[in-house]
Design brief:
The chain is an alpha/beta fold. The chain is about 40% helix and about 20% strand. The protein has one domain: Aldolase class I (TIM Barrel, Alpha-Beta Barrel), CATH 3.20.20.70. It contains nine helices and eight strands. α3 links the parallel β2 and β3. α2 crosses α3 and α2 packs parallel to α9. The two termini are about 25 Å apart.
Length: about 200
Amino acid sequence: MTIDEIMRASPVIPVLVLDGEGDWAKLAETFVGAGLSVLEVTLRTPGALDAVRQMSKVPGAIVGAGTVLNERQLDDAAAAGARFIVSPGLTEPLATAIARSEICYLPGVATAGDIMRGLDLGLDRFKFFPAEASGGIAALKALSGPFGNIRFCPTGGIRADNAADWLALDTVLCVGGTWLYRTGDSMDSVAERARAAAALRG
């Protein structure tokens, strides 16, 4: 799959901070069953790579690694089965390493300069991050003007009550959200939130 196809596969990408031990395969099955197949596991916790391994074996799940900062983390994530990489910012060394690996990449951008650096590196799909802190919808609309072929996944401050507003923008293919899972949530509550998020595509 291309990064464009991954971004179009689900209107909302759960951004998951998975701490401690858990049945992460069951969590992935819950999301996929509720209509959200693309899952981002952030590399912010000691067990994140194990969660990627578990989730990547679930049929229908498209699992990526987020908060990837360098080539070592890229290699670890790819070895764990991640199909795409998300980073909070954009650096040439990481972008070059990812291009060599042929894994899909969604780098974070917040300014026109960030986007132009990405274009120079052959990228045209970006995470707008941190979305709300960087000026929100008004800022993304302004940035979208000079870059007609760019598409975004806003992340950071996206919530259940504002996700639809972001998805209404022509340049937004999906959004990333942390509201879909918190440590200790029941699978029933996760499924309910996920179904509501999957329905936002309409």
